[in-house]
Design goal:
about 140 residues, mainly alpha, about 5% strand
Length: about 140
Amino acid sequence: MTALRIQRSAIGLALVAVACSANAAQPCESADLGCAIFNGQHAIPAHLRDDDRTLPDWTTRCINCHTGKQPAEAFAPPLTPSYLLDAISRRGGPPSRYNPDTFCRVLKDGVDPASVMLRKSMPNYQISDTECAALWRFITSG
């Protein structure tokens, strides 16, 4: 990948994060690691696919792009229990549903439960199993 393409990808992600950051972080209970990860109060290192440079923390908060809105109204699908747990077709793949393992796989590798690669704008996170489990519990507890 050329340096210019990498720079454009990083700039594009930054612009998306700024545009999506209108979703204000909501305060978390002090012990809720999943909420802190979702809102960006507990940063998780991340990078774009095919680019090992770590992204700035403010660009990788879940809440930047994943809102409670309908998928057609948001940049990225809402991270709600029904979206994750119901068997639905995503990105042209067969119907699938998330579970804790496939959720962590999508965060780490950008591959959904139906083995469909997510868009490059979705960061690949260097998230621990404990952090991923906490985020899964927060999102699916609805």
